[in-house]
Amino acid sequence: MPTFKHILVPTDFEEASEHALEAALDLAQDLDAEVTIVHVIQAPPIYYSAYAQGLAWPVEELDGAARRALDDALAAAKKRYGKVDAVLLNGAPRVQILEAVVDRKADVIVMGTHGRRGIVRAVLGSVAESIVRTSPVPVLTVGA
Amino acid sequence: MKKILVCLDTSPRAPRVLATAIDLARSTSARLTLFRSVSVPPELVEKDVFGLAPGALRERMLASAKEGLMRYRADVPTELLEAVEVKIGSPWEAICVEAKKIDADLIILGSHGYGVLDRILGTTAARVVNHAECSVMVVR
C-alpha cells in the first residue's frame, strides 16, 4: 500500500469543511502529498429551466460568489502549505466529487461531517455518508 | 495524530486496512491499537446462554478473536504498536465505545464486511462515520 500522494478535499466553506481542510493540510505535510480543494455548485434543475426560458436567474453571480470563496480558501491554504490547488465544479455533489477523484487521480478523500444527529440526520443523510458508501478510494471524515 | 484505532474483522479487506494504518502511523508518528469486536448471535442471547454456562462462551469468543488479531500483530512494527483489544458487541457500537475509551484521534476501518448484510451494504462504516466523535478513515 503506497503512501497517499494526492488528497482531495471537498468543501462547502462551512465549519466542518474548514476543519477537514486543516486536517488535510496537516496530513499532506506529513506525507508530502498534493492537495486539491473541490467545491461543487449545486443549482436545482428548476433554476436552469427558468434560465433557459430567459428569466433572469443569477447563475453567473452564484458561480462568481463560489469562485471568490474558493479563491479565498485556496489563498489561505497556500499560506500553510505549497502544494495546493482548487477546482470549481457544477452538478450533484456526490457524482462530481467522485468524478474529480478519477480525473485528478486522487488516492484519498478528506471531508468534514456536519455532526447532525437523530431525526435530522435520518431524513437528510449526508454527502459524506454517500461518499463513504461509494468512493473507490479511502475516505477520511473529520468531525465538526 | 497520536492514537489510531485499527478495526480488523475477518474479511479479506482487513490486511489492506492494516497496511493503510501502518503507513499512516509511520508518516504521522502515531501508535496503533488493533481492535476486533465479536457479536453473540441474537438467538443465543434470547436463550440466556450466558446464564447456562457462565462466562464460558464469552471467554471462548474473545479468545478466538484475540487469536485472530495476534496474527496481524506480527505485521506491525513494535514501535508502532500500542495495544491489541477485543470486545463483545455490535461492531459499530463497540468501535465507537473503544475509540472514546482510548481517546483515539482516528479510527481506520474497512468499507464493508462486518457480517453478512454488511458485506453488501457497508452499514458498519457508515454508522461509525455518523457516530464516532473522532475522525474516521474508511478504506476500500
Bulk shape of chain B: globular
How large a portion of the residues of chain A is in β-strands, by DSSP E?
Answer: 15-25%
Report the biggest beta sheet of chain A as strand number plus sense, adding barrel if it closes.
5 strands, parallel
CATH architecture of chain B: 3-Layer(aba) Sandwich
Shape of chain A: globular
Main beta sheet of chain B: strand number and arrangement?
A: 5 strands, parallel
CATH topology of chain A: Rossmann fold
List the total number of helices of chain B.
7
Count of separate structural domains of chain A: 1
What would you note in describing this structure?
The complex is a heterodimer of chains A (144) and B (140). Chain A has 144 residues and is α/β, with parallel strands linked by helices. Chain A has a single domain (6-143), classed as 3-Layer(aba) Sandwich (Rossmann fold), CATH 3.40.50. Chain A has 6 helices and 5 strands. Chain A has a 5-stranded parallel β-sheet with strand order 3-2-1-4-5, with helices on both faces. In chain A, helix 1 (15-31) links the parallel strand 1 (6-10) and strand 2 (34-41). The longest helix of chain A has 22 residues, at 59-80. The radius of gyration of chain A is 16 Å and the shape is globular. The model of chain A has no long low-confidence stretch (mean pLDDT 84). Chain B has 140 residues and is an alpha/beta fold. Chain B has one domain (3-139): Rossmann fold, CATH 3.40.50.620. Chain B has 7 helices and 5 strands. Chain B starts with a strand and ends with a strand. Chain A binds chain B through residues 1-3, 23, 26-27, 30-31, 108, 113, 121, 126, 128-129, 132-133, 135-143, and chain B through 1, 16, 19-20, 23, 27-28, 106, 111, 122, 125-126, 129-130, 132-140.
Keywords for this entry:
heterodimer; A: 144 residues; alpha/beta; Rossmann fold; 5 strands; 51% helix; B: 140 residues; five-stranded parallel β-sheet; 49% helix; 22% strand
